[in-house]
Amino acid sequence: MMSVLELNKSLLQEMITYVDGYAPLEACGLLAGKEARAEKMIGVTNQAQSPARFVMDPSEQLQAFDWIESNGLDLIGIFHSHPTGPEIVSATDIAEAAYPVVHLIFSHSDSDWKARGFWIEDGSAREVILRVTG
Ligand SMILES: [Zn+2]
Q: 127 catalytic, yes or no?
């Protein structure tokens, strides 16, 4: 289990720009990095094209896994957006979590996107602190 995920401000902004461009639909993607530090985001088409759920396009997801491996990185996170909230993972997110990685939720309230991280295991979610640097 991971309790802190580090990422830099520009990577966070890159994900916000991506999910904002996808709104009002949910956006989704993968985060690659090393140990507890995220280094790269890869947006994946939301096959569900829904404002309330996401299904990653399987072939894009496989391509992303290949890219991550060939660049010597690991899959360390999955992000998706909740364009109309809530800030936390949903019961569906918990039920469908397939990988032992940090799940980042970008939720929209007022005019800002907010990011929170969660570790999902054995049917429950615990908050992961996002440490944003430089
Ligand atoms: Zn969700």
A: no
